[in-house]
Every structure is written in C-alpha cells, then in structure tokens.
From TrEMBL:
Lineage: Eukaryota, Viridiplantae, Streptophyta, Embryophyta, Tracheophyta
InterPro entries in the cross-refs: GCR1-cAMP_receptor (IPR022343), GPCR_2-like_7TM (IPR017981), GPCR_GCR1_put (IPR022340)
Name of this protein: G-protein coupled receptors family 2 profile 2 domain-containing protein
Gene Ontology biological process terms from the UniProt entry: abscisic acid-activated signaling pathway; adenylate cyclase-activating G protein-coupled receptor signaling pathway; blue light signaling pathway; brassinosteroid mediated signaling pathway; flower development; L-phenylalanine biosynthetic process; maintenance of seed dormancy; mitotic cell cycle
Pfam families: Dicty_CAR (PF05462)
Membrane topology reported for the UniProt record: Multi-pass membrane protein
Length: 326
C-alpha cells in the first residue's frame, strides 16, 4: 500500500509547511467571513426571512468547513480523519446550498411559484442527506490503517486495493462530480433567471421609457451580481480539479504552485460566498441601523455611502418575490 511519502510525491517538508500555513490562513478568513453572516442572521430579526435563511445555512456550512480545515493535521491520524470527513461533509453541503438558492430564484421568477418556503424540509433532506451519503461512501472505500493524502491536504486515505485509480475514482464520484454538477446547474439556472428578468425589463421599457430609466439601474446591478455566483465555485475548485487530474496521471510528481493554488482557493470559498451571498443590501442596512445608535464620534469613521445604498436597494432575493407578484 502507498505510504505518505509516496503519495505526497516530491513535496519537501518546507513546501508542506507553506501549504499548511496557506490553508490555515485562508480558512481563517473564510471562517471569519461566514461567521459574520451567521452572527448577523442570529442578531438581526429583520434578516430572518426564508431567502436569507438559505444564505444562513450556506454560511454555517462554510464556517464549519473552514473550522475543521483549520484544526486538521495530516501528520496525526485522528485529526486527519476529523479534517477529512467533516471538511468533506460541510464543503459538499456548502455548494449544495448554493443550488437551493438558485432553485428558489428560478422557481420564483421563471416558474412563477410562491411555494418555495414549503420546500424547506426537502432542501434540508437534499443537502444534509446527500452530503452524508457521499461522505459515508468515501469512508467505506478507505483503509483506515493507512493514512495518505490526495493533493496537499488530508482529503483521502489509501484504498484497500492499494490502487491509485480506485482512490481518485471514489474521490471524484463523492466530491468533484457533485461539485461540477452543482456548477452546471447554477450556471443554467441563473442564465434562465437573468434572461427572464431582462425580458421583463425590456417590456417595462416599452411601456414607459421614463419609468425604465428610473427603476432599471438597481436591477441591472443585481443581474450582474447574480452572473458572478457560479464563478465562485469555479474559481474555488478549478485548480483543485486540475490538481486531482494531474495526480491521477502522475501520482508520484507534485507541482508546488498548483498545490498552492489548490489549497488556497478552496480554503477561500467561504469568504467568497459570504461576500457574494451574505453582504447584500439588507445586511448592510441592518448594520447601519445599529450604527445609528453609536455616538457621533464613532459613526463618522464609517462610509457615508453605506446608508444611501441600504435605503435605495432591497434584498435581492426578497425583492424578486415582490416583483414577480406584480
């Protein structure tokens, strides 16, 4: 069976320390960013709407994924397992929650349905159930007596057959296949949502050019923002996917810069999600309203544009329901 040194290839001890530091640092940023969104949801009652509840569970998954990634240590058996399985579970849950957000937008805007809140139990069964199933499948295929690493971090163990092809097949089936399936689903869904809203905007422009000029600017900004959502997952896991393919082709040879981008970008996924999904106008407005309670000498240090943006824009996901019912 493959040893740790054989699977790690030509990475030196100093390279591994650098990768460990990058993983810890990037995961810390993601933990702080996603933890901030979780805290906002718990503290601000006006954010406890169904649309932001999905963002809350996304941030919670990212926060736990980052936490277990930080405490993981490939040099220690127990912590390697703790990092490998829990990180796998919550990372899968994270990108699955993005599909529920995309599905909610599509069902509300394109299909004109208002029953999305009734689907919350199904969302939980889908996300947590799928994450649990793929994690169990991965654990069954592992040999718990021989710990090794795919890539630069503790993501998998050697299979009982000792064949590298089996290791990568299981890892692709239980992680990268659902990941790229989610990316494809999000891309197609947001494309349909954006196209639908653009058509509605053109119709509004035909009815009243003056109203169109007044109301379309926030919509265009929101549409552009939605277009970047699928890119978060692509940017976070593109280098990891390439690294896994390279490991399959040349299992004994590691490319340090590719492993560095793999670890760093994947660990920043929680930060990217917290900025894109979490820091919307509703959150900024809720924060500013609390800032009004601060003394004037403290409030002057915050940007003045925060209040105007908070007052002019509604929550992107919530406003869809209002717009669709008109």
């Amino acid at each position: 069976m493959a040893t740790v040194q054989a699977v790690m290839g030509n990475l030196s001890a100093s390279d591994r320390r650098i990768l460990t530091a990058v993983n810890t640092g990037a995961s810390t940023f993601s933990f702080i960013g996603s933890g901030f969104i979780v805290l906002c949801y718990l503290l601000f009652k006006e954010l406890r709407k169904f649309s932001f509840k999905l963002v809350f569970f996304l941030a919670l998954s990212d926060m736990l994924c980052s936490f277990f990634s930080i405490i993981g240590d490939p040099s220690k058996g127990f912590f390697c397992y703790a990092q490998g399985y829990t990180t796998h579970f919550f990372c899968v849950a994270s990108f699955l929650w993005t599909t529920t957000i995309a599905f909610t937008l599509h069902r509300t805007v394109v299909r004109h349905k208002t029953d999305v809140e009734d689907l919350e139990p199904m969302f939980h069964l889908y996300v947590w159930g799928t994450s649990g199933v793929v994690t169990v499948i991965r654990s069954i295929s592992n040999d718990h007596g021989h710990i090794s690493h795919i890539g630069a971090w503790c993501w998998a163990q050697t299979g009982r057959t000792g064949k590298a092809s089996m290791i990568f097949a299981v890892h692709f089936i239980t992680f990268y296949a659902p990941l790229w399936g989610a990316i494809l689903f999000n891309a197609v869904t947001y494309f349909q949502v954006i196209r639908m809203l653009k058509n509605a905007t053109r119709m509004a422009a035909g009815m009243s050019e003056r109203i169109f000029q007044f109301d379309s600017r926030p919509d265009v900004k929101v549409l552009n923002r939605w277009g970047y959502y699928p890119l978060i997952l692509i940017g976070s896991w593109f280098f990891g996917t390439i690294n896994r393919i390279h490991d399959f082709i040349e299992p004994g040879h590691k490319i340090f810069w590719l492993s560095l981008l793999d670890v760093g970008m994947a660990a920043l996924m929680g930060l990217f999600n917290s900025i894109a999904y979490g820091l919307n106008s509703s959150v900024r407005r809720a924060i500013y309203e609390r800032m009004d309670l601060l003394p004037e000498r403290l409030r002057k240090w915050f940007p003045k544009s925060l209040r105007s943006r908070g007052q002019q824009q509604e929550s992107e996901l919530v406003s869809l329901k209002i717009q669709d019912q008109q």
